[in-house]
Prior knowledge:
Radius of gyration: 25 Å
Strand content: under 5%
Structural class: mainly alpha
Number of helices: 10
Oligomer: single chain
Shape: elongated
Distance between the termini: 22 Å
Order of helices and strands: HHHHHEEHHEHHH
Amino acid sequence: SGDLLQGVFILLVAISDKYLNKSTCKTQFEWVTSNLCTGLGVISTLGSLVSLYSMTVLSAYRAHGAQSMKIPQDKLTDKNKVVVVVCIGAIYFVAAVVSFIPLAPYFESYFVHSIKYDNNPLLVGILDKEHLTLVIEAYYGRMSKHGFSWNSIGNLVNDMFINVKVHGKKIGFYGSNGFCLFNYFIESENPQIWFSGTILTSNVVCVVIITISSAFLTMLTVNSSNVAGKNNKVLVARNKKIQRKLSTLIITDVISWVSFFVVWLVHILDVSSTSGWCSLFS
Length: 282
């Protein structure tokens, strides 16, 4: 289901680019502030995390079962069915929480990084809190230095204009790029770095668990095949073929996530410029 969500995301992005024509430079701000972009970001993140968490739980469960020398059963017991349902529910719950946290109003000050006001000669372009605070201080005079929430900024900006309702479109977490993806490559001074870094680190931990579990299962499978297949070369060949396919899937997954993590570290530590890699790893 995680891969299905990723497919839906890619399909919707293609349809949006073809028919809605909102991913061009001319309509960039309309696109990244739209509900559709936000929805695509949630779908992409949810699909990616569900797929990764499912592989992690499945790999760990198989390794645990093999280590316990459990005999495979043709049918699931009632207890095992409950465990499966709980695991699936937990996977979707955690993935959904991570996907929707950037949209929670409570964390708006954390995830909304800028705002754009339409057709306003005073507030031009994309403005972050720092620039808006300077404008507000210049208008109202000396202001409190405790910091403003986006709601407070909106109210203060509205009071600056008589009989005119000023409407601004906030650019949130998923609107930081044109494809509405989860934003991993954030500047080190951006407070969102802790959220992105935590999620990416947990993803790498999942990949490590998958790798260790798969390596353990491969060794067990090879040993058991050699013992049981001394007189059955067809069985040995079939098991080796299956293991090669599984190993290829695991290795490509590991290479992708580990490479991504290394590039992220290079970007965060400012060891080298990663601007040329953004199209590949974003």
